[in-house]
Amino acid sequence: MSGSDAKKLVRSPSGLRMVPEHRAARSPFGLDEPPWVPDKECPRCMQCDTKFDFITRKHHCRRCGKCFCDKCCSKKVPLPRMCFVDPVRQCAECALVSQKETEFYDKQLKVLMNGATFFVTLGTSDKSELMVCRLSNNQRYLVLDGDSHYEIEITQISTVQILTEGFTPGGGNTRAIGMILQYKVPGSEEVTQMKFTAGEDFSCNKKLSASWLAAMHKVSK
């Protein structure tokens, strides 16, 4: 894999961040810090329109960069997409989004990095290979290991289609049993397709495979 996974601690006006030493090694799920609305352009809270003065101080939301009073920007919430070490001040709207994303970072990405086993079929081949599929630690690659080895850059994936079974007209439960993935090979406009199928002979891994596929579906969104 290209780049280094080494990280460094940096300080910005928003707080301490633990970021990759090389920009090329950044997670594709990351966000850049927004520019702050200049103080001189913000005489009032951008949410409740309260005028700022010596008592009513202004605060910048670390996610959107807009100006708010303390009442409208009082929550300190984790913001892993910007690599902040500690929870940071955010407006109510941004805090809600960040709280939803925390579950994604705390659970779904860990499921993907732990990996699961699938039968993988490349292109139109009629042969499949048993492979362990996982997200790389730097979150930049989908790594497939079996007799063959593939590293698919997440940013090159164009389509993720989850395959399910068990659907009934009455609205019965469905179960994820596989996935069709389409991606571009770097340096080429050609689109490659892979099909992932959970092995029926590995009943102990069915739940793990289904969880992995569900997490991959959320990543694709």
UniProtKB/TrEMBL annotation:
Residues 39-94 form the FYVE-type domain. GO terms for molecular function: zinc ion binding. Keywords: Metal-binding, Zinc, Zinc-finger. The keyword Metal-binding applies. It comes from the Eukaryota. SUPFAM superfamilies: FYVE/PHD zinc finger. Signal peptide: none annotated. InterPro entries: FYVE-type_Zinc_Finger, ZFYVE21_C, ZFYVE21_C_sf, Znf_FYVE, Znf_FYVE-rel, Znf_FYVE_PHD, Znf_RING/FYVE/PHD. Pfam families: FYVE (PF01363), ZFYVE21_C (PF16696). The keyword Metal-binding applies. This is ZFY21 protein. It comes from Falcunculus frontatus (Eastern shriketit). The lineage of its organism: Eukaryota, Metazoa, Chordata, Craniata, Vertebrata. The gene is Zfyve21.
